[in-house]
Design goal:
single chain; alpha/beta; transferase; Glycerate kinase, domain 2; about 400 residues; kinase; Glycerate_kinase_RE-like; Glycerate kinase; 15 helices; Rossmann fold; Glyc_kinase_flavodox-like_fold
């Protein structure tokens, strides 16, 4: 392909977990495209769905990164960032309260809390934020968001009137919840809960039962966490019971519930919020082909993960989409349902998973080059590629 016939590519992948951030993946793809098509117009726009990588994605799109020390899941200081632009702050719970922030990576399902996430929200308010987007995912805690609320001025006390210990395990001893001290600036702040999780707070589909095992909770600990969350609903003033049943209340160990019930949050799909924040619409209008992807394209991808949101937005604008991935388990029907005309898996280049993950960057550059060949000069129209898995060399 030469500059006279170069096409316009929009490169918008999510992270390849365990290998590359979304920005790194996008950079490698862009390098491969430009190596084979040096005159191509390539726009890089990493994406995320509200979980890990959300702050990085919006910073790559022009937000300012703000970094500070906050309490980690067990109270130890950790360095965390939020992003700010034009009065909108984007906060990623995993930055402060995520599984990756646990000391030594050791789970602490009863003791882990979300105070650091509340500290990030308070810092965003100090920085002048009028809208706060709270991306939840990868949480280490099942504390019902009480740590977050405590950092924002709420008080949770036991029978003796003492502040409750951090973590979901202490909630069974909750006697009183006082929200009167919540930061008054919250009343004038729009809070968006960016989450694809639609679980309620309680019950067999709730936060403890479904996500407790991912945080290291045993069967007995799951029962204790469930009892604590039920106690929280009983003690909180206002219509907490109704909020506990709302989709998304079970997100991030009940942090979604706290945001909905106590902070007046509005829940939206994470990828939709992030696409708006990063200016995906205008970038899409200038593209002939969108390249999205993530570490694994599978059935979960179809449930609203980042590549699904990218493909849906592109489909609405009539722009074709291809995907790259480390592992592909979707068949042609699954790819069609996703809105992707062709998939390029790293496993077709390197079948050994360990080597594929270790060498994901160079492998993505090879796939970028192949996409440039398939959709560049002398290729078929980008709107009508052969369906299914693209051949790679």
């Amino acid at each position: 392909m030469n500059s006279r016939t170069a096409r316009r590519f929009l490169v918008a992948p999510d992270k390849f977990k365990g290998s590359l951030t979304a920005a790194q993946a996008a950079g490698h793809l862009a390098a491969g495209l430009l190596d084979r098509a040096p005159g191509a117009a390539v726009r890089v726009l990493p994406v995320a769905d509200g979980g890990e990588g959300t702050v990085d994605a919006v910073v790559a799109a022009g937000f300012e990164r703000r970094t500070l020390l906050v309490d980690g899941p067990l109270g130890d200081p950790v360095q965390a960032s939020f992003a700010l632009r034009d009065g909108t702050a984007v906060i990623e719970l995993a930055q402060a309260s995520g599984l990756d922030r646990l000391p030594g990576g050791r789970p602490a399902p009863l003791r882990a809390g979300t105070r650091g996430t509340g500290q990030l929200i308070a810092a965003a308010l100090d920085a002048g934020a009028r809208t706060v987007v709270l991306g939840v995912g990868g949480s280490a805690s099942t504390d019902g968001g009480t740590g977050m609320l405590t950092a924002l001025g709420a008080r949770f006390t036991d029978a003796a009137g003492h502040p409750l210990a951090e973590g979901g395990g202490a909630l069974t001893g909750l006697v009183r919840a006082d929200l009167s001290g919540l930061d008054p600036r919250l009343a004038a702040t729009g809070l968006v809960l960016a989450s694809d999780v639609d679980n309620p707070l309680l019950g067999p589909a709730g936060a403890a039962a479904v996500y407790g095992p991912q945080k290291g909770a045993s069967a007995h600990q799951i029962q204790q966490l469930e009892q604590g969350l039920r106690r929280l609903v009983e003690v909180l003033p206002g219509p907490a019971g109704a909020a506990a049943r709302r989709p998304g209340a079970g997100a991030a160990g009940g942090t979604g519930f706290a945001a909905l019930a106590c902070l007046g949050a509005v829940r939206r799909r994470g990828i939709d919020v992030l696409l708006e924040a990063t200016g995906f619409g205008p970038a899409l209008a200038a593209a002939d082909l969108v390249i999205t992807g993530e570490g694994s394209l599978d059935a979960q991808t179809l449930q609203g993960k980042a590549p699904a949101g990218v493909a849906a937005a592109a489909r609405r604008h009539g722009v074709p989409v291809v995907a790259v991935c480390g592992r592909l388990t979707l068949d042609e029907a699954g790819l069609a349902a996703l809105g992707v005309s062709r998939a390029y898996p790293l496993s077709a280049l390197e079948p050994d998973p360990a080597r594929s993950m270790a060498g994901a960057g160079p492998l993505l550059e090879r796939l970028g080059a192949r996409i440039a060949e398939d959709f560049g000069a002398g290729s078929r129209d980008p709107g009508t590629p052969a369906p299914g898995v693209g051949p790679v060399d």
